[in-house]
């Protein structure tokens, strides 16, 4: 089935959105998200956004998966709050956390929760507190592909693991053919693309494969770096999607809005449910809603069920966290930090996500985040 755009999604690419005063971080690559889109997503009225005492420049960096969501929020927030600049650089989750623990940014975006050693490192910057994980954006990790003559493709965890581990190398492999009996699969060589930078998206895909296809994906599920040999590497989600789009026989993984913007077909996943599950925000929400909070205190790190077989639940999902200090934040940027995060997790902020192929947070989780953000100090 050909990838369908949502009627509400505008053709304008928010990846080209100009955010004034772009932040330049040394020793970090840049992900410009060329060709990506996030829809219009404007709030009903600027008055719905509470600016409070927000002022000056707020620097942030991290996840490329959430960039389109951040662009929407920044556009709306800056329109409502004069004198505030939000500069978010999409350099990958690993780069964002590094910049946060080095005190270069007020918050980091990461598609995976802080590791214990990263929490310990954050205490040097937070001083009287530590870094905490605040869920803010949800969505499916789409498996996008470019295969001439094939518009509808079903794969399962086992075949995906073997494809990304270079064990299945031809599109007409019998394992793929078995899952797609009506497809005319060519003998084209599979070109599997993965992230070259440290990425929470990579980690979430690895957790899914390690959970749902444990005998075929034996790599460390905690790694943000691509663990398997072979395949082809590209920087950031925009790099992966660009290569898949330009290469017949290619397959890769990225947040759904990248596939939508680039008009790429996405794989349906055979989870063992009655029917294969498509990568949609609604189907991702069904999986995210079952997440459990495993963080302590103000930390809201989540545990996702990658092995779900629930009807209509898309299993390859991620939740992007905004990582900030619970205490010890920079006093000059604290008002802008709280105001921006308050807007992002508000009803208005979450509503705009669906237009950009993201999954709004489940109500129970969003409510917990809304309680914590105002207490940051």
TrEMBL record:
UniProt KW Signal keyword: yes
Keyword Transport in record: yes
PBP domain boundaries: 54-347
Database matches in Pfam families: PBP_like_2
Keywords per UniProt: Phosphate transport, Signal, Transport
Superkingdom, taxonomy of origin: Bacteria
Disordered: annotated span: 219-238
CDD domains reported for this sequence: PBP2_PstS
InterPro entries found in the cross-reference section: ABC_phos-bd_PstS (IPR005673), PBP_domain (IPR024370), Phosphate-bind_PstS (IPR050962)
Signal peptide region: 1-27
UniProt cross-references to NCBIfam families, sorted A to Z: 3a0107s03
Similarity comment: family membership: Belongs to the PstS family.
Protein name (record): Phosphate-binding protein
């Amino acid at each position: 089935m050909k990838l369908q755009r949502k009627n509400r999604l505008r053709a304008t690419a928010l990846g080209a959105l100009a955010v004034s005063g772009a932040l330049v971080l040394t020793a970090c690559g840049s992900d410009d998200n060329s060709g990506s889109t996030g829809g219009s997503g404007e709030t009903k009225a600027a008055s719905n956004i509470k600016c409070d005492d927000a002022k000056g420049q707020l620097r942030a960096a991290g996840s490329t998966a959430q960039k389109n969501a951040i662009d929407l929020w920044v556009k709306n927030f800056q329109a409502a709050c004069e004198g505030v600049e939000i500069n978010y650089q999409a350099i990958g989750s690993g780069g964002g956390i590094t910049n946060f623990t080095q005190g270069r940014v007020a918050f980091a975006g990461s598609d995976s929760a802080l590791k214990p050693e990263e929490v310990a490192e954050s205490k040097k910057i937070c001083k009287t507190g530590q870094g905490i994980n605040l869920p803010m954006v949800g969505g499916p990790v789409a498996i996008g592909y470019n295969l001439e003559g094939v518009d509808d493709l079903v794969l399962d965890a086992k075949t995906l693991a073997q494809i990304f581990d270079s064990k299945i190398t031809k599109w007409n492999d019998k394992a793929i053919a078995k899952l797609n009996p009506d497809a005319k699969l060519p003998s084209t060589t599979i070109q599997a693309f993965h992230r070259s930078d440290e990425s929470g998206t990579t980690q979430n895909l690895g957790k899914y494969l390690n959970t749902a296809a444990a005998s075929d994906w034996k790599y460390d599920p905690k790694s943000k770096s691509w663990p398997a040999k072979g395949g082809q590497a590209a920087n950031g989600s925009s790099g992966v999607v660009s290569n898949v789009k330009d290469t017949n026989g290619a397959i890769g993984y990225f947040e759904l809005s990248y596939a939508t913007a680039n008009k790429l077909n996405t794989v349906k996943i055979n989870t063992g449910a009655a029917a294969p599950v498509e990568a949609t925000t609604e189907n991702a929400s069904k999986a995210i809603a079952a997440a459990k909070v495993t963080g302590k205190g103000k930390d809201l790190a989540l545990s996702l069920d990658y092995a779900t077989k629930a009807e209509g639940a898309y299993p390859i999902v991620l939740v992007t966290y905004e990582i900030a200090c619970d205490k010890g934040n920079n006093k000059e940027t604290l008002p802008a930090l709280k105001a921006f995060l308050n807007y992002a997790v508000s009803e208005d902020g979450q509503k705009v996500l669906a237009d950009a192929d993201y999954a709004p947070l489940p109500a129970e989780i969003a409510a917990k985040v809304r309680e914590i953000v105002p207490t940051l100090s």
